[in-house]
Design a protein that fits this description.
Layout: E1 2-6, H1 10-22, E2 27-31, E3 43-47, H2 48-57, H3 59-67, E4 70-79, E5 82-95, H4 96-109, E6 113-115, E7 133-136, H5 143-146, H6 149-152, E8 155-158, E9 162-168, E10 175-182, E11 185-193, E12 199-205, H7 207-212, H8 220-230, H9 232-235, E13 240-241, H10 243-246, E14 258-261, E15 266-267, E16 270-272, H11 287-304, H12 309-339, H13 349-356, H14 369-379, H15 383-402
Parallel strand pairs: 1-2, 1-7, 2-6, 4-10, 7-16
Antiparallel strand pairs: 3-5, 4-5, 8-14, 9-12, 9-13, 10-11, 11-12, 15-16
Length: 403
């Protein structure tokens, strides 16, 4: 099979690896519009379950990723000036650039042609001529998807809050949060390590806070200095690093998160993968994981239906749309939790942090926070309450989704 992949993110690279492992005779070329090693995003997070799936797909790249990752088990939150700790499951972080380099090296080792600084403008591009399968892994702004927007049925909704991705030389050994109240409202930060030298910081706030602090009109250096002061106790005096300093070639950008869904995941011989097909709010830390799982599912569908490409692509889309329902629901509720943050900040910090961990729950928006905390605490001891929570939660989620 001749396969052309557009987009050199983790999903596209990993799919090329899986297909070469299935059949080394596949003719696979991957095109990435940016230079090799040029990426923005600092570190990515994942959990242990993903490593098990990657080991089944390709043990070599899985072990390389595991060896290059850092891990944590605790969550730490600073609320105003009070610190609280929550014990949790093990999480992992790895530099996005490091992951891409590892996957690209493995793909080339298996015989994939990886072409950098090579943009593919649309479905009629010469690079796609003669391909049996085209994989659009070219991100949320996918040119291949947008060329047939009516067929793919993409829908985009924008979140209310503003956020920015930053780095720091502070190395976090736990997944850390800081919530700071200003005269213009709350501003908060998520931070996690991804190497022995740097960590990721995502700063978020409501629009009124963003404009009230002047972050809508302040240059990057001044913005970083202001954020360093606000989160001084989290950063321990270490600096924040913006996009320009990271080598991305552009200033740090405050954005509104865009949630993308698509009605169908293929048209003709073109299949969508990763952010070209779907996005989930960054606060659940699942974007890279979902892209890699897309790659695994697409490769599996093609192996099972190797003699019928349309049927294989249909099966891939059906499977992944079904599997994404829970992640998309969790992401939606997580984003809404942060958009309604003041509702939870009257709680004492330990209880607020407990509800932070429950932010994916469809019950939480409908129950006063103090009451939810008490019910959840009681449910940990009473099986009848646990059963009620398991029964009611999905029904509220479906009702909200239909609405």
């Amino acid at each position: 099979m001749k396969i052309t992949i557009v987009g050199g993110g983790p999903g596209g690279l990993y799919f090329s690896i899986l297909m070469k492992r299935q059949d080394p005779s596949h003719d696979i070329t991957l095109y990435e519009r940016n230079p090799a090693g040029s990426t923005y995003g600092w570190g990515v997070t994942y959990w242990a379950g993903l490593l098990d799936k990657l080991r089944a797909g390709d043990p070599v790249s899985a072990e390389a990723i595991a060896a290059a990752s850092v891990t944590w088990t605790d969550g730490v939150a600073i609320v105003r000036d009070e610190r609280t700790v929550h014990r949790g499951d093990a999480g992992f972080g790895i530099g996005r650039r490091k992951m891409l380099n590892l996957l690209a090296d493995r793909a080339r080792e298996l015989g994939v042609r990886v072409e950098y600084e090579h943009a593919v403008s649309g479905p009629d591009a010469a690079e796609l001529a003669g391909a049996d399968l085209v994989v659009a892994a070219d991100g949320v702004n996918s040119a291949l998807r947008e060329a047939h927007a009516d067929r793919f049925g993409a829908q985009v909704t924008s979140g209310r809050n503003r956020y920015v991705w930053l780095g720091t030389t502070k190395v976090f050994d736990s997944f850390s949060f800081a919530f700071k109240e200003t005269e213009h409202g709350w501003i908060w930060c998520y931070a996690y390590g991804f190497s022995g030298e740097q960590s990721t910081c995502v700063v978020e706030c409501a629009p009124d806070t963003w404009t009230g602090l002047g972050l809508d009109r302040t240059n990057e250096d001044d913005s970083l200095r202001l954020l360093e002061k606000l989160f001084a106790d989290l950063l321990d005096g270490e600096p924040l690093i913006g996009r320009e300093q990271h080598g991305g070639g552009a200033p740090a950008q405050w954005l509104n998160f865009r949630t993308l869904t698509t009605r169908t995941w293929h048209h003709g011989n073109t299949a969508l993968l990763g952010d070209a097909a779907h996005t989930t709010h960054y606060s659940i830390g699942a974007g890279t994981t979902l892209a890699l799982e897309d790659a695994l599912a697409l490769a599996e569908a093609l192996r099972a239906g190797s003699d019928d490409l349309p049927a294989a692509l249909d099966a891939y889309g059906r499977r992944r749309r079904a599997e994404l329902v829970s992640a998309q629901s969790a992401a939606r509720y997580s984003a809404q939790w942060y958009e309604n943050l003041p509702r939870y900040m009257r709680l004492e910090p330990a209880r607020m942090f407990a509800l932070l961990g429950q932010r994916h729950s469809p019950l939480l928006p409908h129950i006063p926070p103090q009451l939810y905390y008490r019910l959840d605490h009681a449910a940990g001891r009473l099986e009848s309450l646990r059963r009620l929570k398991r029964w009611l939660g999905p029904r509220l989620a479906r009702a909200a989704h239909k609405g």
